[in-house]
Hints:
Elements: E1 3-8, E2 17-22, E3 25-32, E4 35-40, E5 54-56, E6 59-61, E7 68-70, E8 76-78, E9 91-97, E10 100-104
Antiparallel strand pairs: 1-10, 2-3, 3-4, 4-9, 5-6, 6-7, 7-8, 9-10
The chain binds FE2/S2 (inorganic) cluster.
The site of FE2/S2 (inorganic) cluster has 10 residues, from loops.
Amino acid sequence: MVLIRACLVEDIPLNGMRTVSILDRAILIANIEGKFYAMDGTCSHQFANLSFGQRDKYIIECPRHGARYDIRTGKVVQNLGPEHRVNDLRAYRVEIVDGCLHIDM
Ligand code: FES
C-alpha cells in the first residue's frame, strides 16, 4: 500500500464530499462529522459520479438509479434487483499528513 496525496483537508468541508482523481481512478472522499472516508467514486452499475448522490450518514446513494453503498466499506447495502446488480466498491484508508488528505492505495 502507498499513501497518495489527494487534496487539502479544507477542500472537503464538514459533512461535504467530493471526487478526486488519483492514479486515473475517481475516488470519493467524504467528511462525516469531522472524520474522513474514501471509496471508489464511480458506481459499479453504469458509472455515475457518486459525488452527485445523496448521503445519509455513511450511506451514499447513486444519483442515477439509486443503488446504495456504505462508504466505510464500499459494500452495496441496497441493490437494484435481480436483473441489474451492482457490485461492491473498494474503500480506502484516509490519513492526514501535514494538512493534506492522503489515500492509502
Ligand atoms: S448508475 Fe448507479 S445505480 Fe445505476
